[in-house]
Amino acid sequence: MKVKTVSLAVVLSLISYNANAKEFVLTDTEKNIAKGNWSISNQDLGVNGNKFTIQNTVLKGGKQDGTELLTISSDDFTIKLIPTRGLGILSVVGDGVRMGWDSPVDEVVNPKYINLESRGGIGWLDGFNEMMVRCGFEWTGHAAQADGMMYTLHGRAQNTPVSKLIVDISDKTPHTITVKGLIKENTFKKSNLETWVSLSYVPGSKEFTVHDVVTNKGDYTRDYQIIYHSNFGTPILEEGARFVAPVKEISPFNDYAKGGLNTWQTYLGPTKGFDEMVFNVYPFADTNGQTQVMVTNKAGDKAAGIAFNINQLPVLSLWKNTDTLKQGYVTGLEPGTSFAYPVTIEREQKRVRQLEPGQSTEFTLTYSLLSNKDAVTKYAEKIKAIQGEQQTKVVNEPMAKE
After folding, report:
1. What is the CA radius of gyration of the chain?
2. Burial class of residue 51 (count of CB atoms within 10 Å of its CB; 0-12, 13-18, 19+)
3. Distance of CA 133 to CAs 232, 365, 398, Å?
4. Residue 73 burial (10 A CB sphere; 0-12, 13-18, 19+)
5. How far apart are CA 121 and CA 138, in angstroms?
6. Which burial class, exposed, middle or buried, applies to 401 when counting CB atoms under 10 A from its CB (0-12, 13-18, 19+)?
7. In a 3-state reduction of DSSP, which class is residue 133?
8. Are strands 33-34 and 164-170 parallel, antiparallel or unpaired?
9. 2 contacts: CB under 8 Å, gap ≥ 6
10. What's the rounded Cα separation, in Å, for the pair 341 and 278?
């Protein structure tokens, strides 16, 4: 598959100083900088308008010892990022509505306590509790033994601390806050992928944008994959909650998911003994490739939405894990370049992309917290407009067997 090359200007914009922003370097391994505990506010900067604070905290004790947690707060909206875990998003809360979930993993686990190859390659689950996890970038999907190595569950990015951590705050209204981190997946004789991951937020708003740029820094063509594993539990997820999306085609991931194909748009309440169900989705998009999806509660007054471009992220995995609350009651809306099959299957089915030496590619997703019926309705209307009169093709059999 042809990959769009990102311009040098786009890459440089993620790593160079912005003349219209105040830049704070919290981590830089090349310069031996690690600020640790740190904070700044609009008041500290003499910035008027919506109030905000940004705080980086080094957690103590247990398996989260040494993990850094970066919190952005503005009005009644809080975003928690984890620089130590690939700058993943732990949770987002606004207007009393949470985007996130309750995992049995109740600490923000430092990757140094995780063995990705444990339990047959699913050690990734020992730290899994975030609202958004980057599954990639060298590979993603279910664990597999191939090519003389173990492709562990969902790759390495989420268990890689960022080598650089930068906070930019725009001098100009509306004073956009951008947090950037550099993930290095560099292995002798293997990968040399470097990814600038970022989150931008306008104080006072109820949405934020994730923008990542992956670059092959090596001299050889390399594979890459990414799934943005975006996870939502209560209070959005409940019995009667709905998945709303402009769906071109949907199929069950495996034989177990075939049993839920007739009810793929709705959710059960917490159900003991419910194994996870996954569905493979190809979404419709507008003429520019833009699409959006959401999960909403039964009443339609609380929801989480994700907008993305199918030219960058052509598929979506719908993960339903409506198990008990203590086991992990959660759904995943997961835009990606690939489905969650092992990389061996994804290669066979031509969904693994490649980067030439020096080539870059980018991904942009906008997440929206929808905390009232009007906001949910307007978001749903945009989805309906993308779907239009186009029919959804329901495929009864899985596209692959593990």
Report:
1. 20
2. middle
3. 12, 13, 25
4. middle
5. 15
6. exposed
7. strand
8. unpaired
9. none
10. 11
CA distance 265 to 324: 20
DSSP-assigned beta bridge partners for residue 293: 306
Cβ neighbours, 10 Å, residue 38: 16
**Burial class of residue 209, CB neighbours in 10 A (0-12, 13-18, 19+):** middle
Within 10 A of 60 (CB to CB), how many other CB atoms are there?
9
Buried-state track 159-178, b at ≥16 Cβ within 10 A, e below 16? bbbbebbbbbbbeeeebbbb
What is the pLDDT at residue 138?
Answer: 98
Q: Along the chain (402 residues), what's the average pLDDT of each consecutive run of 10 residues?
A: 52 48 95 98 93 98 98 97 98 98 98 98 98 98 97 98 98 96 96 97 98 98 98 98 98 98 98 96 98 98 98 98 98 98 98 98 98 98 98 98 94
- Provide the β-strand partners of residue 24: 167
- Measuring CA to CA, which residue among 257, 225, 252, 253 is closest to residue 338? 225
Burial 343-377 (b: 16+ CB within 10 A, else e): bbbbbeeebbbebeeebbbbbbbbbbbbbeeebbe
The neighbour count for residue 390, using CB atoms within 10 Å, is: 11
Which residue type is seen at 22?
K
How far is Cα 228 from Cα 118, in angstroms, rounded to an integer? 23
Contact (Cβ atoms closer than 8 angstroms) between residue 137 and residue 184: no
Tokens of 356: 């030439």
Non-local CB neighbours of 266 within 8 Å, separated by 6+ positions:
240, 241, 242, 243
* pLDDT, tens only, 104-161: 999 999 999 999 999 999 999 999 999 999 999 999 999 999 999 999 999 999 999 9
**Amino acid letter, 115:** N
pLDDT at 7: 52
pLDDT of residue 3: 55
- pTM for this one? 0.95
